[in-house]
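Why does residue order matter? Because the sequence determines the fold. Keep that principle in mind as you read this record.
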Amino acid sequence: MASRAFAVVGPSGSGKDTLIAEVAGLPGLHLVRRVITRPEAAGGEPFEGVTEAEFAARAAAGAFALAWQAHGLHYGIPASAVAAQQAGATVLFNGSRAMLGQAARVFPGLAVLLVTARPETLAARLAARGRESVGDIAARLARAQFELPPNLPVIRIDNDGALETAAAAMRAALQPAALQPDNA
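Structure:
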């Protein structure tokens, strides 16, 4: 089977981390643990928290296949993800729409799993986290509608209803037949 790579993107509160956790045990799946310049105690996805100085040193040493900034933080996808894809694994990582063009150059055959939910659902989920002010939530909702780079296969996953339904859609998207021309 050919190796594949998937970037999971979507607005804050869409449930990206929850869905990634739901598919984490699939055979042949290499789940990427991002490196982020925030304390691990901040919660959310499983990630490696580092200082800005440590992130910069790792980036300078070539430790990241991808690195970008968003929301005042630095994010990195370890270079080991490229090696995993080259070894035949299906690579899955939580990405950002801003880095998709770069990601497509680094990961051959990259596909995008776009996780969506209605604005009311996003607002309720963000408020339930308790990490952001009302103003911060409003700003995130304003950024919820975005364009993706052209020429990338995109599979939309609606996560507005039952978690089991969205998780089943993500599992199906990770199957080789999901990227046939009729489905891309």
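The radius of gyration is 16 Å.
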